[in-house]
C-alpha cells in the first residue's frame, strides 16, 4: 500500500530542498573564493632582519665551506620554512571554514524545515477550513460559511467563491423545498375534493342519478384542475434543462398568435405591436405571452383595460403588458414572481400562483429578464426584455 505525503509535508520538503540547494551553493562559492585568496606565493626576497640572522648563521658555520654557499643554504632553508608554514596555515583555514560552514548549514536547514512546516500549516489552514465546510455541507445544512479573513489572495478568493456557492445552493434548496411543499398542497386540494365528493355520495344507501352526475362533474372539474397544474409544473421542470433555442421569431407575431381567439367580456385590450425579433423557442414564448395575458385578465376589474406592446430598444426586444386592477403594494411586486404566490387569498381566484413564475422562468431560459412595477391607480406593468440574439445566433434582419 503506497503512502502519500500530505500537502503540508510536500511543501515543507520543497522549502527545505530549495534552502539546502541555495545554502550548498553559497558554501561552495565562499570556499572557492577564500581558497583562491589564500593561494600560497613563493618568496622572492629575504627581509633585512632575516638577513642579519642568516649572517650570524654564516659566522657560526665557519667550520667549513664558503660563506656564499652557506648563506644560500640558510636562505633556502628559511624560504622552505616560510612556504611550509603558509601552506599549513592555508589548509587549516580552509578546513575550519568548510567545517564551520557545513555545521552552520546543517543547523540552519533544521531551522528552515521547522519554519517551513509552520509556514505551510498557516498557508494551508484556509484549505483545511474549506475541506471541513465541504464535508459538513449537506442538503439539510448549507448554512456553514468559511468567512475567511486576511489579505485578498488566491486562497481568500477560493474561500469567498466557495461561500458564494454555498449561499446559492442554500437558496436553491430552500426554494426547491418550498416549491415542493406548495406543489404538494396544491395537488392535494383536488384530491381532497374528489374524495369528499365520492364519500358524500357513497355514504348514502341509494344515491340518485342526479347525485352521481353531480359527483362525476365535481371529480371531472378536480381532475382538470390537477391536469392544468401538472402541465405547468412540467413546463417549469423542463425549463431548468438545457434546450436548443434556435427559432428565429418576432415577438409581435407571437403576441398575435396568443391573442387570437381570446375574448374577455368587459375588458378592453389594445395592442401596439412593432417588430421585435428574437431567437428562441416559439412554444415557450407563446406560453409566456399567454400567461401574462391570463394574469392581466384574471386580476383585472370590470370595465378595465389591457395594453400589450412589442418593440426594440438598443438591440433588445421588449414585450410590455399593462393592466388595470386592484392596487398592488410596491413592496409586494417581486413576490408575485415566486411560485404559488398570490397577492390575495388563495380561494379568491382559480389560478395556481404560477403564471408569473413561469414567465420569469421562460425569460431566464432565453437569457432575458422580467421587471414589473405597480400602477399607481391599480394594476400591474410588466416588461419582458429578450436579446435579439441568443448565445451566438445570428441577428435577425
Describe the protein.
- By secondary structure, this protein is an alpha+beta fold.
- It has eight helices and seven strands.
- The chain has helices at residues 7-37, 48-60, 67-136, 154-202, 209-239, 251-259, 282-298, 355-365, and strands at residues 247-250, 268-273, 277-280, 305-313, 316-323, 369-374, 380-387.
- The strands form two sheets. A five-stranded mixed beta sheet has the order 2-4-5-7-6, with helices on one face.
- A hairpin with a 5-residue loop joins β6 (369-374) and β7.
- The longest helix has 70 residues, at 67-136.
- The chain is elongated, with a radius of gyration of 47 Å.
- It starts with 6 loop residues before the first helix and ends in a 10-residue tail after the last strand.
- Mean pLDDT is 76; it is low at 345-349 and 390-397.
- The sequence of SSEs as H and E is HHHHHEHEEHEEHEE
Please count the beta strands (DSSP E, at least 2 residues each). Answer: 7
Poorly predicted ranges: 345-349, 390-397
Assess the beta-strand content as a share of residues.
5-15%
So what's the overall shape?
elongated
Task: Provide the helix percentage.
Answer: 55-70%
Average residue pLDDT: 76
User: Order of strands side by side in the largest beta sheet?
Assistant: 2-4-5-7-6
